[in-house]
Amino acid sequence: MSLLDAARQVRENAHAPYSKFKVGAAIRAGSGAVYTGCNVENLAYPQGTCAEAGAIAAMCAAGEYRITAVAVIADAPEPVPPCGGCRQKLLEFAGPDVPVTMATTDGAERTMTLAELLPGAFTAEHMSRT
Ligand code: THU
């Protein structure tokens, strides 16, 4: 199954009763294994989590810490990019050249690198004077 198909499939499991906006994300890790996540909303709105965060958590829970590719899908007029917070979360485990494929359930697709999505990222260098 392609990374995008994995994201499409897990999207069905999203818990999005408040926004009604279901998102699916799939990550390919260093081993080649695929980890998936969907958005999980909460009545206390800020407690909801994004699909990407779920996929990252599943990857770490399996003992993997390197992302080589990402796919995100939603039912939207245009491919939906990861939110700002998720871009930084992805960068924790992915290099700047990692491709992020964004797709709609209608079949539109767009791929950008993580560096394109998060220019001027906060990195470890910002915390060091040496
Ligand atoms: N959402 C994601 O899961 N990933 C994104 O990259 C964008 C937004 C979710 C959060 C919330 O449950 C819903 O989409 C509407 O913002």
- Element order: H for helix, E for strand: HEEHEHEEH
Low-confidence stretches: none
Question: Could you tell me the radius of gyration in angstroms?
Answer: 14 Å
Distance from first to last alpha carbon: 45 Å
What topology, given as strand order, has the largest sheet?
Answer: 2-1-3-4-5
Considering the protein shown, what is the CATH homologous superfamily? Cytidine Deaminase, domain 2
At the first level of CATH, what is the class? Alpha Beta
Question: Using DSSP, what is the number of strands?
Answer: 5
How much β-strand is present in the residues? 15-25%
Mean pLDDT: 97
Ligand kinds: tetrahydrodeoxyuridine
Assign the CATH architecture: 3-Layer(aba) Sandwich
**What's the helix count?**
4
The biggest sheet amounts to: 5 strands, mixed
Supply the number of structural domains: 1
What fraction, in percent, of the residue positions are helical? 10-25%
Verbal overview:
- There is one protein chain.
- The protein is α+β, with helices and mostly antiparallel strands.
- It has a single domain, classed as 3-Layer(aba) Sandwich (Cytidine Deaminase, domain 2), CATH 3.40.140.10.
- Helices cover 25% and strands 24% of the residues.
- It is globular.
- The termini are far apart.
- The model has no long low-confidence stretch (mean pLDDT 97).
- It binds tetrahydrodeoxyuridine.
- The site of tetrahydrodeoxyuridine (THU) has 15 residues, from helix 2.
